[in-house]
Amino acid sequence: MSLAPLPHPAGPAPACICAPPAPPAPSPAGGGEPDGAAGRFGPTHALILLIAVLGLGTGLFLAGTELETVFALLGGCGAIGAATLTAAGGGRRLMSLVVEAAVRSGAGK
């Protein structure tokens, strides 16, 4: 199967008549995140995570995974998510206390 050739104009192609680019959004002073709810964890995020966790758990169970394995996997995902949100939200002090407690319990102190 061959494609039909496309017609080409005889003369040079016209210049692009594009709209001028929009000016960039002003950045916040100090280089931090802009004000607003763009970087916050809100109810919509929580609902999406709830649906994802329920869907993942249901899918694993229907695929024949043992129930205690499903709970262990979802618990691990929840722990990783909580640690990520804590670190991103500026809760580094709380996170350091949790990590220190986990290390001490692992070391048997």
TrEMBL record:
Superkingdom of this protein's organism: Bacteria
Residues spanning the membrane: 46-64, 70-88
Chain intervals for the UniProt region annotation (Disordered): 15-38
Keywords: Membrane, Transmembrane, Transmembrane helix
Name this polypeptide is given: Uncharacterized protein
Organism: Streptomyces nigrescens
Lineage of origin: Bacteria, Bacillati, Actinomycetota, Actinomycetes, Kitasatosporales
